Amino acid sequence: MNLLISIGGMTYVYNEFMRILFAVWELAPFLKVGGLGDVAHFLPKEIKNQEEDIRVVTPFYKALRTGRQKRVKVDSFVVWYGGRNVKIDVYQIKFLDADVPVYLLRNRKYLDVPGKDTFAVFGLSVARLVQYGVEGWKPEIVHGNDHHCGLLALVLRAWKVPVKFLLTIHSMMEQGKRGKNLIAKMNLEERWFHLVGWELKDRRINSLLEGIKWADVVNTVSPTYAREIRSEEYGAGLDDILRQEESKITGIVNGIDYGEFSPEVDKTLGQNYGVDNWEEGKYRNKLHFQRKWNLRVNSSIPMIGFGGRLASKQKGVDLLHKMMLRMNLSKFQFVIVGQGEEEWEEKFGLLGDFYPKSVYFAGKFSDEVERQMYAACDVVLCPSRYEPCGLTQMKGMRYGCLPVARATGGLIDTIEDGVDGFLFEKLLSVDMEGGLKRALQIRKDRPEEWGRMVRTAMKKDFSWKRSAQKYLEVYQRILR
Ligand code: GLC
Description:
Layout: E1 2-7, E2 10-15, E3 19-23, H1 35-49, E4 53-59, E5 72-81, E6 84-94, E7 101-106, H2 118-132, E8 141-145, H3 150-158, E9 164-169, E10 177-179, H4 181-185, H5 197-202, E11 204-206, H6 207-214, E12 217-220, H7 223-228, H8 232-235, H9 239-244, E13 249-251, H10 278-292, E14 303-307, H11 312-315, H12 317-326, E15 333-337, H13 342-354, E16 359-362, H14 367-376, E17 379-382, H15 392-398, E18 402-406, H16 409-414, E19 422-424, H17 429-445, H18 447-459, H19 464-479
Helix pairs in contact: 1-19, 2-3, 3-6, 10-14, 12-17, 17-18
This protein binds alpha-D-glucopyranose.
């Protein structure tokens, strides 16, 4: 950050880095469970590119894959939990592709595998790290993510650690509810916990609620989701609280990494392409995909993709399945890349077995197949019930694969209906089918218009640079 200081009529530029600690429970490329893992990788990397001093802290799970990356033990301390001293070892490692220090917190009992005590111990440990510093470094802002960092916000306040706290909400559905006995285990007084009416009933602590209450600023991963969660429909029981805290909630859309996700440079594609030769590029990638996965080889057949977790509660895969059953599958091709709920893996697997020339189901999520899918497909479907931000529509657009998406959350903020994609309103498979038909009609009857839409989508700015600048503005505002 550059500060302009005026002394005696002269202006001096004073260069000082903001010191930010990014706390998160999953971290690509070492461990990725969902979209948050990607955010944790690319956002700090971009903030570092913009010359701020950001570091990351995460539990050192047994499952974390750091490869041959060098890691150094830099600290060791104890926190008091469950009536005894718990030893925490701190390792430092760098991201494979960026100069961002990552602190990995190790404790075999509590941090090897996420369990009911993990985020209480994580909260105490990160607070300890912030209070005393690590490698002679102390952050001035802690940027926590989701309910996993809610108790961290509370501990920082209860211990009166002089640091600002930003909480980013990637999902309201998981709230980290825990038994009240955690308060004693954490050696804290009950008065620090917001045990509101409904919680008293089931006598549970709500970690996300604590995070929201104790944070200086809260943001979600899109402005629309930031508004939606103040309603009963999307607030998952916390809408009252979110309405009370309205003034401190903002929304910032995520980005995608252009070094990774660009059809011009993507090494996994049979043929690279850009805005100027998208037709030729997509044509070749489609034929390549059809041959590779034994679909009927035909460049004009509409190819429709879906990428993501097979989670019916969020991603609306039930709608997708219902629509597929209704459609004449000899006239379309479907590519589904995702894994998740067993029921849906089985159902899409069966469709693939029954219609091998029209349906390809990659039952194991693969980053490579997903990218090849965007390069080959004409349309990507996003029938989400709710969507805090969503990455697949942005990736699709980057590859000239237009989204047909439900008008909710981040999908509204990233897609302009009829300009670079298509939105449908109701959570119904017939509405999605309507949206899809609208898209395919333009593709068939008005190819120039389709081409214009594809180029507009490919050129849209979803870079992390743009998002990171917005986060920097929030950090600066908090520090003021
Ligand atoms: C969660 C949300 C998704 C968002 C991602 C990263 O997975 O469901 O919408 O894109 O977090 O913020």
